[in-house]
Write a structure and sequence with these properties.
Helices cover about 0% and strands about 50% of the residues. By secondary structure, the chain is mostly beta strands. The chain is globular, with a radius of gyration of 13 Å.
Length: about 90
């Protein structure tokens, strides 16, 4: 059985920074059962095993990544791109 994963890309610690390169790669978050976006304010994640959310410093009862300045904010880093894939 394959699961979904969310990969974060093009990270920077200052959301106002203009990147001269691709920035940092972020974590590969999962395995997930679903990813739901709401008006580019947040991404709600449903983990295959809810306790796995703790591994990514997310609340296992409501795992969510929030947007800040049009970037996804996670653990002090702001990401400009993401990819959802299965493996």
């Amino acid at each position: 059985m394959s699961h979904m994963y969310l990969k974060l890309y093009h990270g920077r610690t200052d959301p106002e920074a203009t990147l001269g390169d691709w920035g940092t790669d972020g974590p590969e978050i999962g395995p997930l059962e679903s990813v739901q976006g709401t008006y580019a304010t947040d991404l709600k994640l449903r983990f295959a095993n809810p306790i796995d959310a703790v591994t990514f410093n997310l609340d296992p009862h409501f795992p969510c990544l929030e947007y800040a300045n049009d970037l996804i904010h996670h653990q002090g880093v702001f990401y400009g791109d993401f990819q959802v894939f299965t493996k």
